[in-house]
Amino acid sequence: MFATAIAPPAYAQSPAAEAIGSESFVAAAVRQVGPAVVRIDTEKTITRQARDPLYEDPFLRDFFGAMPRQPQEELLRGQGSGFIIDNTGNILTNAHVVNGADRVVVTLKDGRSFDAIVEGFDEVTDLAVVKIDDGEDDVLPVATLGDSDRIEVGDWAIAVGNPLGLDNTVTLGIVSTLKRTSSSVGIPGKRLEFIQTDAAINPGNSGGPLVNQRGEVIGINTAIRADAMGIGFAIPINKAKEIKDMLARGETVAHPYIGVQIANLTPEQAKINNADINSGMYLPEVYGVLVIRVLEGTPAADAGLRRGDVIVQVNGTSIRSADGLQVKVENTPIGDALELKIQRGDRLQTVQVKTAELHEQAE
Q: Active-site residue 96, yes or no?
């Protein structure tokens, strides 16, 4: 008789299994990106009008009359994160970290500090580029930018930054979902589809990198929800790739705009509205995008759109969500026309709306 030894089946090691070894995948990823992650400290001086407390006394106020408020200066300090994206000293961060700052100071992981210049920012995408000059060539650590279009729900996500003033902090989680719109997150005035993650993101993380298990940047940490635990959001790095060079040159990023406030509409929602005798309008019982308000002096106003219109098609394609319409507008070059089919009462109409530049309309 011969005994046959049966070898155990071979399994591909997962990152978790690798963590049992001499170095975890997290440590390897952080070692790669960590030196390029920076702390950003900002200062802004504001002027407030303040009264002398002496004249708050009613008797003295009646006796001397109204006293003018005296201007008082107050220094506001803020802190965020960022990461170096090239050897010339360009750093990517959030616009809200540096916008309006009188002074920006960047501190590297190795302890070096530099006064930085804000080269450009875009409030709509909450992205900014600041620049430092170390006086030497090719000595700055640079983060490797990944491809956010290739990430999937369940992928590892590592947040690196300086939350709550605690420098060089690393947290680990996964990609919880993709394409979470800014409107669904409750961040008005932005045009973003976030990466949602359960990696801990706290104040001070803003502008820092969200990286994959290979240490490649897949997002820019930007927002947390105060009413939720373990949910954070990051701007996909591919969105930053689209505009970072424009920001570095100080150019304005163009955002198409038609000038409507909108909401999703379903037949069920319309029926509930129409059954209310106190409702201000009768809504078509269809799927589409409800126009809640038309802003004056905008392309939508010029095209004749009205409150209560329901947009059911864009360029011949059915539309069912406000986010979907926003994407259509964003992807239309400024000055080009969108063909909108609208339901107004019991009638279908077609209108042409030319996009305009958002900043021009906001002025």
A: yes
